Amino acid sequence: MLKAAGIGIGATALATPAGAAGAPLVHPGLLHTRADLDRMAAKVKAGARPYTAGFAKLTANRHAQSGWRANPQAVVYRGSGTPENYATLYNDIHGAYQNALRYHVSGEEAHADTAVAILNAWAGKLTRLEGSADRFLAAGLYGYQFANAAELVREHGDFDLARARELVLNVFHPLSDDFLTRHNGAVVTNYWPNWDLTAIACVLATGIFCDDRGIVERAVEYFKHGDGMGSVKHAIPVVHEDGLGEWVEAGRDQGHALLGVGLMGTVCEMAWNQGIDLYGYDDSRFLKGAQYVAKWSLGGDVPYTANTRRKGAIGGWSGSETASDVAGVDPGMTRPIWAMIANHYTKRRGLAASYLTRAAAKAAPEGGGGDYGPNSGGFDQLGFGTLAFTRDRMEEGVGDLSPSPSPSGGSRGAGGVRPQASASPVAGDDLAATGSGDVAGWAAAAGIGAVAGGLLLLRRRDQVRRGPGE
User: Fold this and answer.
1) Strand 245-246 relative to strand 238-239: parallel, antiparallel, unpaired?
2) I need a surface site. Which of 30, 223, 270, 281 has the fewest CB within 10 A?
């Protein structure tokens, strides 16, 4: 029997029984929808660029080979002072994900079989994660990644979906959910944003993969209003007059700032594929933060407001740390994070985002785990964004914005969640001035569904607004 951990986020967060809050969730519906997978396959078959270059990057990766064999462990350790073996886990997860993605593009069954064998092996053996505080990073990163790999083969006849869901719910999710609640017994600002963001990604992926809308809603609520540094207004505490949103972890170092942006983009994409618009939340605050990090990472000058955060344990030692300026950058450093974010804002929404566009072009074709070094940092993102997230322009029509319904039901907006339309209306434009509460009525009058109406509203409103930081 599946069981969801009942640890809430904050005092008012209550667990909601699976399926109690509305229509079924969309599957596949984590980082990739059925429409996404079909687009990749069609573009590669047609020889279209840059999809072919992205697919070549995938097929060249050693993890994407059908000969990959799993090495599952009963206990995975991450953190100093422990017999670390977590590299075995992340290598196998990336082997599963890359083989599954390769199968969907090429149709070669051997790759689907390999992905299923890897995931089944781990689901049948892994019982717990141990180690230092880094065990929370392991839970968050490898939890969201395992769920994404499994989502791609959930309909395979040999895949043990029930056992995979038990693994995600009972091994990965409880640590991530508990971190968002208790932060390992530390004061809430002790940990930089990427710690929260790994946990949010895992909690959200768990809710979607395991069809528990209550878990999904907890992740969304924390993204918007959480007390920790990973919630969007704490990760991006200042929006400057030029429209750039200061990414607080830029005061730490470039690598962790890139990790944070990549994780927040992952959260936004998974939510979007369930009809929840976190990309546009708070007047597209994430766009402003991503533009800031892209400009800075490309070697541009960006402002930074000194940030002092409290550190220490609750009831124990305490201290503080101040970041007074942006850290140094290596313009050659990159992670496979930019294609997903740039394509959402420029292609789905029609916004200008020059720094994101430049960063994505410089990183293309994006690889994945194993292409960015042998250590854990090279496996923090699933990658292959050039293949997976490159999109044609808005002129394709609204249909590209909405995933196809899964065989089990559900579509964009399932459960009554409409795309956000909370930004200030644009004067003089009737459609852009329509508030979110009016979308259903306006759409009905226009003879279209509320979901399509919400998407049209987003499209028109964003087309008449220019992107930040230009």
Assistant:
1) antiparallel
2) 281
Is the link from the previous residue into 28 a cis peptide, with omega within 30 of 0? yes
Structure tokens, 395: 């002129």
- Alpha-carbon separation of residue 50 from 44, 57, 59, 73 (angstroms): 9, 11, 15, 38
Residue 249 and residue 243: Cα distance in Å, rounded?
A: 18
Q: Cα separation of 28 and 152, whole Å? A: 7
| Angstrom distances, CA of residue 320 to CA of 184, 305, 317, 327 | 17, 16, 11, 18
Residue 180 and residue 226: Cα distance in Å, rounded? Answer: 8
SS3 381: coil
* Rounded-to-integer distance, Cα 294 and Cα 245, Å: 11
Q: Which helix (H) or strand (E) holds 307?
A: strand 307-312
- The pTM assigned to this predicted structure is 0.82
Q: What is the pLDDT along the chain (470 residues), one digit of tens a residue?
A: 333 332 222 222 323 333 334 678 999 999 999 999 999 999 999 999 999 999 999 999 999 999 999 999 999 999 988 799 999 999 999 999 999 999 999 999 999 999 999 999 999 999 999 999 999 999 999 999 999 999 999 999 999 999 999 999 999 999 999 999 999 999 999 999 999 999 999 999 999 999 999 999 999 999 999 999 999 999 999 999 999 999 999 999 999 999 999 999 999 999 999 999 999 999 999 999 999 999 999 999 999 999 999 999 998 889 999 999 999 999 989 999 999 999 999 999 999 999 999 999 999 999 999 999 889 999 999 999 999 999 987 633 333 443 333 333 333 332 222 233 333 222 222 223 333 333 333 333 333 333 444 444 444 444 434 344 43
